[in-house]
Structures are given as C-alpha cells and as structure tokens.
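wait is this the right file?? whatever heres the structure
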C-alpha cells in the first residue's frame, strides 16, 4: 500500500485555516451543521485570510471568505512569480571543484563553504517569489450582517465546494464556489429562494499596482496586471450568466439586478509557457477557456467537477470510530478536542491534508510550493 506524505508546511497552512480565530457573530442565529461529516464549517464569515476556505484545481487557487455585505474571493495562478527566464548557473564554477574537494578532504569545512559561496552559488543569490494574482469582490446592497439569520459557510472535502448560505427578510441566499479542473475555471454560483431577489455588484482587483480593469466589448469583466520588475503578465476574465434580471456595466464593474440565479466563470492565465519561454497570450487562453466552459450549464459544470475530484479523493478512506463532534463548528471542535472523545476530527484533518494536496498539485499546474497554491502576500 502506498503511503501518502503531505508536506509539513502545507499541513500547518491547512490547520491554521481549520482552526481560525474565535469570533461570535450575533447575526448567525444558529444555523445547522452540514450533513457531510467531512466538512469544515462555521457560523461566521472569515475576518482574515487564514480563516477563509480554500479551493483549487492544481493551477488556480482561491480563498473564499464567505462575506455577507461583501464577499471576497482572493485568487492565485501558479505561474505568477517574480523574475524572468534566466540561467542561474555560476559561470566557471567547474574550475573550482578540485579546490573545493581538496578543502573538504582536508577538513577545512568553513573554507570550503566560503569558496562555494563565491564561485558556485546562483546569480542572483536568491529564489524568486510566488505572487498573488487578484481579488474578486461581490457586493450585496442591503445585506447588513446584523439582520442575517441562519448563516453558515462550509467546505465539503468530498465535493471540493465551498458553500455560503443565510436567510434575510425571509429569503434564502446561497453561494457555491469551486475550481473546476476539467474546465480550468473558477466557478461562483449565486441563488435565492425568491425569484428576482438577487442584487449585487462584481469587481476585480489586481494584486499589483498599475493593473487595469475594464468591461470588454463582449460584456466580460477583464483584469490585466504585471509582476513589477519581472516578465510575467497575467489576465483574468469573468463571464456572467443570469437566470432572470439584468446585468449592466458601471465603470469597471458589473451590476446585477432582479436575478433568480447567477453563474460567474473566472478564467485566469499568464504569458508563461515554460521556464525559457514567456511568449504566450493570456487573453487568447482565457477566451478559449471561457468559450468551452460557457457552453455548459452550471449543473453540468458542477457534476463534472465533483466526479473529477472524487476520482482522486475517494481513493483513500479512514475510519477511527464515530463521534458527535461534527455538530460543533470546526474552530470550537478543535478547542474542545480530546482524542478519545472525537476520533472523527483526526480523520477530518487527515482528509483535509489530502484535499489540500489534490487542490494544489495537479497537471497542467506547477508542483505545489510551500504554501500549496494559496498566497495573498507580495513578499
């Protein structure tokens, strides 16, 4: 049997998101726990990045905050790095190899290290930095947190979908977010129990200064950015589909009024082809991606995503016994944890580690870095 080894720093990243920080939301008014026991769930939105819930398809990653008045979805694309194609080999290093060996054989470790630093190390002597890409914001006028009832957000590890739901003035609102690997898009679906109740504003914001956001002639929201001092250019393009209501452009945003359901498809690409070539056209890549995904209904996209994820996730199961801990919010469950009283929490954390590795390390993406796929810091 194969042993699964999850990078320790990836586990630490995951545990920090599972635990979150304590915060009592008076607006929550006691929502029910999810039926799926392999779920992380909370009765409050995330107030900081480490409390948001991650989705990913190996190339695109997103952190979903579950906001009420304003939803933030911070997203990454795994080729957005500082730097440029460059040969980091130190010219002429081979000439100093005999001397380096001689010093080591003579037991002169420090002298050998100093020689290696001068003549063997890369130029420049540092690793390039993985960068955030941007943020997707959804703003909901009139959705004051203090008026909301039955709020809940959760990440279902078995379906790889983050759900946010609450009730306001008798209307049930629901959002689902996932990163489709087969279609290489981030999908956001909004719905309401009452036709015509959806009203919101959509914005994109690049992570780096000097970026551009505009509404394209086709009505898509398009974001362009560049890593300062580097060679990587990136673009994100959002396509909006509505069931009822209407969507209009207002400056650099899209506004929706009177909809029953809405689906947002976000494609993200860079000019990166490989470590030697950054000549790709991100706009053409996004256009092709959106054309393919846009031809499918939300239900088909969702079902395809779940089947694809479960093909990997359901390869491993672990049973350490049952417990009632899943009735508690995940952060409270961790605070009360005792191994003999809640063995299912151990299973949840084990499966969460697998979920993070699946979400951050799949072809055609790059290998997972120390943060997996998710990062909101420029440095």
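ok assuming it is, sequence goes like this
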């Amino acid at each position: 049997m194969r042993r699964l080894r999850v990078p320790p720093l990836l586990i630490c990243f995951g545990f920090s998101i599972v635990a979150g920080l304590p915060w009592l939301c008076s607006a929550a008014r006691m929502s029910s726990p999810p039926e799926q026991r392999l779920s992380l769930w909370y009765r409050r939105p995330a107030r900081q990045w480490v409390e948001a819930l991650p989705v990913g398809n190996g190339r695109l990653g997103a952190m979903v905050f579950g906001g009420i008045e304003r939803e933030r979805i911070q997203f990454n694309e795994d080729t957005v790095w500082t730097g440029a194609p460059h040969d980091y080999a130190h010219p002429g290093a081979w000439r100093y190899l005999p001397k380096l060996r001689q010093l080591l054989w003579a037991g002169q470790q420090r002298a050998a290290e100093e020689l290696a630093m001068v003549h063997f190390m890369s130029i420049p002597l540092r690793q390039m930095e993985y960068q955030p890409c941007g943020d997707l914001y959804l703003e909901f006028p009139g959705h004051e947190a203090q008026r909301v009832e039955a709020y809940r957000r959760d990440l279902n590890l078995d379906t790889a979908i983050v759900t946010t739901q609450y009730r306001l003035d008798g209307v049930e609102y629901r959002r689902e977010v996932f990163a489709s690997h087969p279609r290489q898009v981030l999908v956001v679906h909004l719905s309401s129990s009452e036709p015509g109740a959806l009203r919101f504003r959509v914005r994109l914001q690049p992570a780096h200064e000097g970026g551009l956001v505009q509404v394209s002639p086709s009505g898509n929201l398009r974001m362009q950015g560049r890593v300062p001092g580097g060679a990587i250019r990136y673009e994100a393009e959002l396509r909006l589909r509505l069931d009822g209501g209407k969507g209009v452009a207002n400056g650099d945003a899209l506004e929706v009024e009177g909809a029953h359901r809405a689906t947002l498809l976000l494609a993200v690409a860079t000019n990166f082809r490989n470590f030697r070539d950054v000549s790709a056209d991100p706009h053409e890549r996004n256009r092709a991606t959106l054309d393919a995904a846009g031809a499918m209904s939300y239900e088909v996209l969702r079902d395809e995503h779940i089947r694809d994820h479960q093909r990997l996730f359901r390869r491993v199961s672990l049973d350490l016994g049952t417990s009632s801990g899943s009735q508690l919010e995940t952060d409270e469950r961790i605070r009360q944890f005792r191994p003999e009283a809640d063995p299912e929490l151990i299973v949840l954390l084990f499966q969460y580690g697998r979920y993070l590795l699946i979400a951050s390390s799949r072809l055609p993406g790059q290998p997972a870095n120390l943060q997996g796929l998710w990062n909101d810091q420029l440095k």
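The first strand starts at residue 39 and ends at 42. so i think its the right one actually
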